Structure formats: structure tokens, C-alpha cells
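Marked as duplicate of an earlier ticket. Keeping the data here for the record.
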Amino acid sequence: MFYPLEVFVGLRYLRARRKNHFVSFISLASLLGIALGVAALIVVLSVMNGFEGELRERLLSMTSHASVSAKRGGLENWEDLLAQARQAPSVVAAAPYVALEGMLSRGNELAPARIRGIEPELEPGVSRVDQHMLQGDLASLQAGKRRIIVGRALAMILGLSLGDAVTLMVPEGDARSGSVTPRMARYVVSGIFEVGLQEQDSTLALVHLDDARTMAGLGQAVTGIRLEYQDIFQAPGLASKWVSSLGDESLQARDWSIENASYFRAIAIEKTMMSLILMLVVAVAAFNIVSSLVMLVSEKKTDIAILRTVGLSPAGVVKTFMFQGSVLGWAGTLLGVGLGVALASNLNTVVPAVESLFGFEIFPSSVYYITELPSDLRSADVLWIGGAALLLTLLATIYPARRAAAVEPAEALRYE
């Protein structure tokens, strides 16, 4: 008496014991299917968000938030630009750098390398390489001493350890003849770092800024200035705005989202595809609601006819069955959201328990750099997943409800 008639009848149909138990089984299966699909989608997206954050942290441990360089050649007036950069809005630190590409050789071993010239005192402000040193430290890089710090994978390729000598070869072009001759220098390994990214650990090497300028033939110039901002996500806009405010057309700004675009584009595509695939699980469960309601309509034709004869309109019949199907879908969605949020929030506890129960490691430390499943639960993901599941279940009720409204009372009651 406290509910509209459609809600009252829909709740009675949900609570009533049915003659056809198969209909009840399909209803329960669809509810559980929606719950599992929603929970799986929340957990998977949370894990992928966690991997994205972990990747971003590892990438930015060796690269700055943004950099400013000359469009052509080296940056001549970098000292003044460095002082201005430190006064720019939201800039935490700034440091000059020189970027080179060359080859490292030791004995018969040869490996390509990206050489970065740095100021050891300023580098910790724009990167986290000092926190990833396995051996040695940044202070070992001294001007004119020809010391070099290499990644762990690069050291393994060349068979390097602390104190070993390695030859650095950098190509030098002759504009007149068009020929390329290598500029060579002998360096001593003074440190080894490990970030946990193959591209960084197997190709990157650090030398002192002055040594890099000598190898590059830049004189007193540098390649550019690296910037660290308070907020990583505001860095792209702030860096471009600051360079534009200088009014120097010869300068250009690059940021972490451009330099590492391929990584994050790949993650975005994977997240989109996983979302579509797992949403299909929810859609299949929603179609189970269609099946259960269609069979319920066939079972309840007599009841529908009686309701019609006592005054319930076709629109009322539609509302009755749409409400009943929506309750199943919404209950499954709420159950799935609760389960997904609980799992995503406690992966650090759940994963070790599963590994202990089945006796295996998901990410063995001997194979992977990341040994734990990172999870980043975002409210926006939970909201759109829940909203999409609710919409799918609502749409799934339309056809059976309209079919119920099309029941003719006289035909249904002819032989009753």
C-alpha cells in the first residue's frame, strides 16, 4: 500500500517462488554475472592505473618534467636562462644537460648508448637517479676526470664493473666533405644504476657536463635545460607558457608526455580494449536478464491478463517488468562495485594470500622488476563502470517488458 502498484507487483514477482525453477536460476546467474563482470572491470582498471603510475614514476626517475632547448644547435645563453627558469611559476629545480648519441666499447663488445652530460650537484633536483644507484654515486663525476655512470643492463652487456675502462665513440660530421668520423675518449666506470626500465638501464650513460660538451664540440653551450615542477600534470602547460613568455622563437619546450608518448598511448589503448572486453561480460549477463524475463512473461501470462482486466494499463505492465529486471541488474551492479572496490583496495593482502594458497608467484623477483601488483583505484572509473552496467541492465528490460504489455487478456484467459 505504500508503493505504486507496478513496484508492488514487481517486488512480489521477485520474492515469489516460481513453478519454473530454471527461470530463478537464470535470474541468479545473471545477477552474479553482472557482479563478477563489474568487479573484474574495476580491479583490472585499478591494476592498469597502478602500472601506469609505476611506469610514470620509473620514467621520470631518469627524465625531468620538462626541458627547454634550442631548435637548432646548442643553447648559448643557458646561464641566464637557468636563472630565469628558477624564478618561473611552480618550478622546483632546473639543471643544464648535454645529450649525445654514440657507442660504448670494451674489448670485442660494442653497444649503442645515449650519453647525458649532467651537473652532479644539480641533477638530484630534476631526476631520481641518485636514489637508484647500485654502486658508486653522482659525486664521482668530476670535470675532466672522464668518469662515466652506466645502467645495470648496459654494464652486463659490456661486462663492466666499477673501475673498468670503456671507450666512448661519438660521431662527428664534416659539413664540407659530408663524411662522419668518430670522436673517441676513454672513460672509467665510477657508478652503476638500475631504474627497472629496459630502455633506460640498457642504453643510458651519464658523464659530467663539461666532458659531454667537449665530446659534442659545443664549447660553452649546452643542449638545454631540464625543469622540475611542483605538479607533474601541470608541467606541459606551464613549460610551454613560460617559453612563449620569453618571446624567443629559437627556443622550444618538450615535456614528459611528449618524450614518453608511445608508452602512455600503449597503456591507454590497452585500458580501452580491456574495458570493452570486460564490458561484454556485463552485456552477456544483462542478456540473461532478457532471457529470464521473457520466460517469466510466458509463465505469468494469466497474471498479466488479470492485472489488465482490473485496470492496469499497458504502460503499467511495462513499468512492472522493467522494475523487476532493473532490480536484478542494480543489485548485481552494487554487489560488483562493492566487491571490486574491496579487492582493488586490498590487493596487497589478497595477492600474497592467493600466491601462498596455490604455491606460485605472479611476478617472480628473478624475472620482473615489479614484484607486486600495483593498484590505483579511481572514483571516476568506479562511477562510469557502475553507470554503464546500470544502463545496460535497464536497456535489457525493455524488450521483455514490451512483450508483456502486448499480452491480450481475452486470449490469455480463454481456457482458464
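See parent ticket for discussion. The chain has a mean pLDDT of 80.
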